[in-house]
Amino acid sequence: MSSRNCEFCKIQSGEYNTEFLFEDHRVVAFKDINPQAPVHILIIPRDHFDSLKQINDEALIGHLFTAAKTVAEKLGLTDHRLVINTGPQAGQSVFHLHLHLLGGRYLGWPPG
Ligand code: 5GP
Ligand code: ZN
């Protein structure tokens, strides 16, 4: 279930030889190209979903969070933030579901 013109589908397929901080048969994690914090990792399902609105697979949703937790532990991040932007109004710019894992600095609240 990949979308032909989706960059994240291409990343997960290995087309760009992206370094994965975590990967298994359902998800991959890689560094954000434009980091907003010292640690900024994206965790994505291998299958294409435009956003959180399109996914109903609870096991996969849970797996994404577990993978993010594994990456945070691997990087020694005790404090961190997970973000899912859904829709342009909320800042979504890539329409392949992804979790942002942010950390390594003080993170203010509320976000902008
Ligand atoms: P969004 O704004 O959709 O929540 O997040 C999309 C994120 O993907 C942004 O933080 C952006 O920097 C990142 N991004 C966009 N294109 C690429 C890419 O080709 N490679 C990587 N590693 N990150 C990307
Ligand atoms: Zn995709």
CATH domain fold name: HIT family, subunit A
Tell me the major beta sheet. 5 strands, antiparallel
As a whole number of angstroms, the C-alpha radius of gyration is: 13 Å
Structural class estimated from helices and strands = alpha+beta
Oligomer: single chain
How helix-rich are the residues, as a percent range? Answer: 10-25%
CATH architecture: 2-Layer Sandwich
How many individual β-strands? 5
Strand content: 15-25%
The top level CATH class name: Alpha Beta
Give helix and strand order, one letter per element, not per position. Answer: HEEEHEE
| Chemical compounds bound to the protein | guanosine-5'-monophosphate, zinc ion
CATH homologous superfamily? Answer: HIT-like
Shape: globular
Q: Please, what is the average pLDDT?
A: 97
**Count of all domains:** 1
Through-space gap between termini: 33 Å
What count of helical segments does DSSP give?
Answer: 2
